[in-house]
Amino acid sequence: MLLLITLVTFGIFFGLPKLAGQTTDQLAASYVGKAPTQEAIEATKERLGLDKPIVVQYGNYLKGIVAGEDFKAGPVTDHCPAPCLGYSFRTSQPVLPTLMDRAPATLGLAVGAAVVWLIAGVSTGVVSALKRGSIWDRTAMVIALGGVSLPIYFTGLVSLALFSYKLGIFPGGGSYVGITEDPVKWFESLVLPWVTLAFLYAAMYARLTRAGMLETMNEDYIRTARAKGLPEKTVITRHALRASLTPILTVFGLDFGLLIGGAVLTENTFSIQGLGQLAISSIGTGDLPMVLGVTTLAAAFIVVINLIVDLLYAVIDPRVRLG
Amino acid sequence: MTSTGGNKTVSTSDTAAAGTTVPGAAETSADAAAPRPVRDGEMLLEVDNLGKHFPVTAGLLRRQVAAVKAVDGVSFSVRKGETLGLVGESGCGKSTTGRMIMRLLDPSFGKITFEGEDITRMSQGRLRPLRRDLQMIFQDPYSSLNPRKTVGAIVGAPFRLQNIATENGVKKAVQEILELVGLNPEHYNRYPHEFSGGQRQRIGIARTLALKPKLIVADEPVSALDVSVQAQVVNLLEDLQDELDLTYVVIAHDLSVVRHISDRVAVMYLGKIVEIADRNDLYERPMHPYTNALLSAVPVPDPSERGNRQRIRLQGDVPSPLDPPPACRFHTRCWKAQDICKQVEPPLIELSHGHQAACHFPENTTVSATDEVAKAAVAPGAAPAGETDAETGE
Amino acid sequence: MTDTTPAAGPATGAGEAPTAFLEVRDLKIHFPTDDGLVKSVDGLSFQLEKGRTLGIVGESGSGKSVTSLGVLGLHNRHNANVSGEIWLDGQELVGASPGDVRRLRGRKMAMIFQDPLSSMHPFYTVGAQIIEAYRVHNDVSKQVARKHAIDMLGRVGIPKPDKRVDDYPHQFSGGMRQRAMIAMALSCDPELLIADEPTTALDVTVQAQILDLIRDLQEEFNSAVIMITHDLGVVAELSDDILVMYAGRCAEYASVEDAFHKPLHPYTWGLLGSMPRLDRERTERLMPIKGTPPSLINVPQGCAFNPRCAYKDLNGDKSTTVRPELVEAVPGHKVACHLPLEKKQEIWESEIRPKL
């Protein structure tokens, strides 16, 4: 798994400058200032390590992660301890603390949204499946279709305009406040992003759950559960829902892992200083170490989340455990 | 161990007495219900010590940790024009055997000879012309037909695949076959879902007949069908055999269907053949305890027999083919088992004319595998007693 | 026990309390679909006493499984039209509320299904599923229920039940799973047990074990058993009475001896002639019924069996125009066929029986 992450990283390390059609000279030049002299460019290249061959650069980068790295920031030499993801080209700040700085916002956004969409999506799906063909089912599925098709920057802006500016219900929307500063304000500022983000996913999960439930309700073991004389409520929750949840869990692992690496659109729309925003701005300025840092972190998240999902799978389905 | 041969039925023999072909005395008398004339013709299919082990892997490196011994050394042969029935419970390896004969699965060891040619390791390319002669009928008439193709396309596909020129075009040829299997030739352009289960099985049979094969392996051909329809298909298979001079290997778990359709029957248990004999011999004088148990377990549609039948009830389940019991594989469930059954594997040898069983304590006979082994040890290559008897019977 | 032959009970009118333990009267279960009305069960009546076994025989689509689901109230309530009466121990079930029927399910009437693997929940242990079944109807602690579950597993012949109780269904073999299903069905000591093709998915030696088990348990519990199957051998071994279903209706209803030794319906003859038998000399040819079972949307006019019947011409055009009603041809032996009784008996003795 780690191998995979480094490979992905390497691909980006390698491909990004080339794709941008930039020579290393040009890249270095952009960090020197106005009217760069060739001398200054060379100096910057050396300082940033861009003068070495790509393989060496990569090697140094890997070494930094494992052993830490010394970095010449002007006259002083900084030491960056063990899991060192390098220094930003632009700000000369170490990457890792910057990431750690940004992560809570994204994490808060993702976890909150996930809770909202799981509750809303799964329950809508279950009710739709049980009342298949009813008005409720049809309405829910039309809304879900809308939710899947509408882009976040649309729903996000609409909700901002409506709830924040016009109705003033969530005045904090659009200006993120850290949880350590003021938990209440933090909550207020995140309600709209949560709902917006969750709307999209809830729609998807409602459809997924509905399909899964419809399939499960036709299983023989549901018939058995009814034949035992179990109340319908128990049949649905203990027998049907548990079996339908496994495929949802798989998808959830992927979705949540991706989201935690940065909910780019939502963060932009609601100006939340999260990882997604960081990634966008770093790409814009060609800040390689920063982009790399975000990617590696996101990849690590996805891997970890999927590991957790696999373990959960074994808890839910005994056949996986022993098979 | 050699695969001992009966003179009429099994010819992979290397024992001395098995050379001549004789209509055994026992058989003619037993075959009261007008036996189908099985030509004394040449051997069509010979299977020698055939086996298939499926590896069980574990860990990241997919290391092999065990093997499922699905088929573990079976030998039999099929003459032109006869029907061999392969019976056994689920997991005994009968279907795997069928698939290996068809070369849909590669054998782990052993040898398959078809028309005198060794096809065990033949490449798929070289097998292709042979596919005309070797066809298979599958169990499920619902999933084995492509739902997007018309009946005409399904039955006609073999012609196109094998580039066979037909006199009046493929369509005419297909319609003739459809008529042969009792379908309306006008249904040429219909799709499988428009047919009932029995009719679909007829389409499946029509497909295998397209190229006038010599051997058809039928894997549970009727078990997915309703009782009344089963009988139609069984009769159809018999008619086609008479008409087209077909040879069948019928794989089934239903002992009554197998008795009805087969000339000879082989009983499998955990990857081995435990008994093989002419149909009447096997059903009237079963030697292996397992065969006895199987036969007594079949419910009989006659309420007056309810209390009268002597029942043999096997305990427990079939052991896992991952780790089959040593020596005689049946000893864990056998009521006659003795110490020797746990130590020495009984070879499959001929105990009376054309009747082979692998048991130390067989029923319905005076000789046993143990005696045979002892005899063979004294005089290697000598003809077993059963065969000498048959010779005198002639 | 009473030895009521099927038709012997007095003809009770609709609404009257029944005399038998289970009495089904003119049961109809119809499913409206886009293609038309599917008459899965179309006017079925039968009676069953405790301690006795009724075998319902039929091919796929004959309505035999829908009947059993209907008795338990397990049919899809949203899209089925049910009429008629089902009396279980003096209580009418068709008109009862779903909640009332639910409370009877599992306690007073239980069911075993064809495929024990798919019929058990893969995520719960065998024990948990039996405990659940027991605790729905009995207000006991988990420990007591668990002891009961182990006890039940032992009674159906599962070795080391105290260990196996914590296994999952996929860790059981096919036969063991079916035993566990039976243990679950019998956990509340039901008076009516419906077995829907209980041995079809099993090997023949295991089938024999399970049939023995059902027989033994019936004696022990003195329950009424409905055995639904397509296998005439299975019903011959277990049943007291036999009901042959065709296209949602009863074709023949008789004691097991009459049904096998003196059957009166051409369809029953056809079933008997279709199966190769181990207990007879091998016949040269089987005598199949021509054609295939009809679609339940499009049941043939007159007698549903007429397109496949070899004797329909003996009735003029009656077989294709008038639906034969189930009448008591011989005491205790009902049949729905236009052929005169003497003719039927003659055909059976001269044409059918010798060829079996």
Q: Describe it for me?
A:
The complex is a heterotrimer of chains A (323), B (394) and C (356). In chain A, helix 5 runs antiparallel to helix 6. The model of chain A has no long low-confidence stretch (mean pLDDT 77). Chain A starts with a helix and ends with a helix. Chain A has a two-stranded antiparallel sheet. Helices cover 74% and strands 3% of the residues of chain A. In chain A, strand 1 (69-73) and strand 2 (76-80) form a beta hairpin. By secondary structure, chain A is mainly α. Helix content of chain B is 30%, strand content 21%. In chain B, helix 4 packs across helix 5 (169-180), helix 5 crosses helix 6 and helix 6 (197-209) runs parallel beside helix 7 (227-244). The longest helix of chain B is centred in the middle third of the chain and has 18 residues, at 227-244. Chain B is globular. Chain B starts with 24 loop residues before the first helix and ends with a helix. Residues 1-39 and 379-394 of chain B have low confidence and may be disordered. By secondary structure, chain C is of the alpha/beta class. Chain C has a domain at 245-274 and 288-355. Chain C is built from 12 helices and 12 strands. Chain C has helices at residues 64-72, 98-104, 126-137, 142-155, 161-164, 174-186, 204-221, 232-238, 256-261, 266-274, 318-321, 341-352; strands at residues 22-33, 36-48, 53-57, 81-88, 91-92, 109-112, 192-196, 224-229, 241-246, 249-255, 327-330, 333-335. In chain C, helix 4 packs across helix 6. At the B-C interface, helix 6, helix 7, helix 8, helix 9 and helix 10 of B face helix 6, helix 7, helix 8, helix 9 and helix 10 of C.
Count of DSSP H/I helices of chain A: 14
The coarse overall form of chain B would be globular
Number of strands of chain B: 12
> Could you state the oligomeric state of the chains shown?
heterotrimer
Helix/strand order of chain B: HEEEHEEHEHHHEHEHEEHHHEEHH
**Taking all residues together, what is the mean pLDDT of chain B?**
80
SS class of chain B: alpha/beta
Taking all Cα atoms into account, the compactness measure Rg of chain B is 22 Å
Strand segment count of chain A: 2
- The residue ranges of chain B in which pLDDT falls below 50 over 5 or more consecutive positions are 1-39, 379-394
Give helix % range of chain B. 25-40%
Indicate the proportion of strand residues of chain A. Answer: under 5%
Spatial strand sequence of the major β-sheet of chain A: 1-2
Give the helix/strand class of chain A: mainly alpha
